[in-house]
Amino acid sequence: MKENYLKGTAIFITIFIFSVFLYNFKDTLAIINNCGKDFISGSTAEDLITSFDSSFKSQLTENRIWINVYGGIQKNLGKREIKNFSILCSNEGSLYTKTSRMGEERANQAIDDIKRIYSKTLEENGEFLFVQMPYKSYSNAAELDGYGRDYTNENQDLIYGKILDSGIPAMDLRDVQEDWEYYKTDHHWTAESAFEAGVFIITSLEDFFELEFANGERYRNRNNYKNRIYPAALFGSAGIQVGEYYAGKDDVVIPVPEFETDLKWEHYVNGEKQTQKEGDFWETFIDEEILNDTQYYNKYNAFLNGGYCENRIYNHLAGNDMKMLLISNSYGRPLVQYLSLYFSETRYLDPQEGRYNGNYLDYIERYNPDVVIVMYDDCINTQ
Amino acid sequence: MVFSDSTFIFVFLPVVLAIYFLLRKHSMAKNLFLLLVSLGFYMWGNPQFVIIMLFSILINYVFAIIISIFITKKALSRLLLAVVIIINLSILFHFKYQVFVSENLNDWFHTNIKIVDIVLPIGISFFTFQAMSYVIDVYRGTVKVQKNPLYLGLYIAFFPQLVAGPIVRYETIEEQITHRTESLLLFSEGMLRFITGLGKKVLLANNMAIIADFVFSNQAGSGSLLSVWLGAIAYTLQIYFDFSGYSDMAIGLGKMFGFEFHENFNYPYIAKNITDFWRRWHISLSTWFRDYVYIPLGGNRCTKYRQIFNLFIVWFLTGVWHGANWTFILWGMIYFFTLILEKYVIKPNQFQNRILKIFYRVFTLMIIIIAWVVFRANSIADAAQYLGEMFGVVKLPLYNAAAGMIMKEFGVFWIAAIIFSFPHSKIKEKLNVHWAMIVKSVALVFVFLISIIYVVNGTYNPFIYFNF
Question: Which residues in chain A are contacts of B49 at CB distance < 8 A?
């Protein structure tokens, strides 16, 4: 009798293993085929093995059931820590990732780059503003005390302190408002917070440099915007790792101008135009297809059509001929949608690895912006 | 490739099982197939190191044959044995110890030896020792020389025990290579043993690893007394479930293909004393050193001081085998000193008093935990710092938020790990009852499914013994 139970259990497990193998068989053959092509074109054995391994694992996890069940298990265990502390969950269900310490050396390198950009901007007769952005951090979540230190605020304080010491014009968005909103399942701020940040930045530009924006009052008045809401639509970078049962989904709320807008957006990669759109605010900036696609989870890419590299925005109703350059990480995507309303032309570059990595000093020289805003805490290519 | 990996479980294993069982009636074909997939398995990690593996197979194959030819000429066969052992150890030395020795010579004697970056082939300590045991056994006449290089290759390279043991003696599988039979029952036992090992590794070892790494990687002095103890105990549990889990998977896989390997662990943390611990921990390694180092040196059939010397050599080598760092040597010496004390001073096997026996068990566990802290540390200084924190030499608060987090966040895993560190023979006897068998079957399927969920999600999956 005992033997029958042994055999039955083993057979069940064996069938399960073979079922998963057969279910993925066709896709696995495709991966092997691709590896074969890479082999012919000269890839090393190690590269092929790594490629097969990662492709197979990615393909396996395309079926969300694995991640959802995993997340369900963590939720039932009452876990706040997921995957070796790479994701943490607060009492409110907000997911956080840890930021490691930046260190003095890297901070100094970043500051040197920012100083060079500042000097270049002045050289080109432009105005420069460093904006210390807020960032999603669990430092204030008491329930996550003991889960390891998040160095977000410390790193930002380090950079901002050095900026102030350098005498560079700067503002700290963390000071002007405490309750910035972030998506629960993502590391980004919401479009509403990006709108608010835009208002604060424009106000600072007016204060620092006595700039005047013809329709500024209209653009900064929140009542002139209507929310478009996509409930439970966004499943962000952290949520995707823990599954829906654990994290839930975020509503996407986008303040859309009710006043007339006439814009054009172009996206360049390695100097070549990849896409362009034009029309009103919504038509130009928002990728509605992404918002409506129930299988596409990272709705943050709907902002600025996911423009991750070099973005050029033309505003035909700005009422001035001012040019602005925004240098920022992906927090800049929803932000630049609102900032561009104030300027005739806006360029937005993302200096992160694999995005716009050309020389930023050369760019400033060619583009010759009236205003340069740097909202970025790390090294930028200025060499 | 590791066993607790989705590529292994959902590609390698089903393909190998399917083809193997198609070939199972043909002894040569199925063994050749197993050899080829074993070499492929080894290549998956670092393709270039399969050359080392093949060289090891070839050199031991050739020398064993030559030794068997000249077996009656004792001096010559002994010389040949010495040569092949030197070759085996030279390969091991080059890849594993050369950098360590060079760095220390440069530090101590201000020599200018160039330090070359050498990548350690996975499992080199395991298959080198396995190969050496074969040649020594041929010399001793305890096994017949294997004239088929494919069969010897299969013995050395067989993928279940290739990279992390157990260290299998040739005599164990000599007959099984050519005269084994696969059966559904053996396959089933193997599969369920594999699943047990998978659960130990993925669910218990990996979660204990998260705790241990969290505590050990925190800045020195920023923990609490409770958190550092929890970190040490977590590592103690991690290394047990990691290594015994892998051994379970290896034994289980062997059974699936009709091979029966010896057990490698026997609930080491219930050991009555350190001597008993080493009869329960990594049994294949401790018996290897007993049979091929301790006994040839004279074992305990010599003077007391010679015995102590023999034990020193064994424990020095045991430490060195684990890695090229002073911490491993110190770890070995901790056991040397404790064993000497037990053998000649404390003599715990002569205790009559029950309280004393219990106290000594706890003391034994304490020594084991302390030794693991040394084992895990990157340096002796780090080990001293950590131990200082554990024993109050470095002042820490009694408790901190991290300690509370570790207990609360991983509560289920702590409980499971502690429970499964103990044998449950009385419960196991009762599991022959019909309903209890159902519970056991359901539990195994549950463990399998949960383990698979964790594996596919790419959760934290370190393998400690891969460094050896």
Answer: none
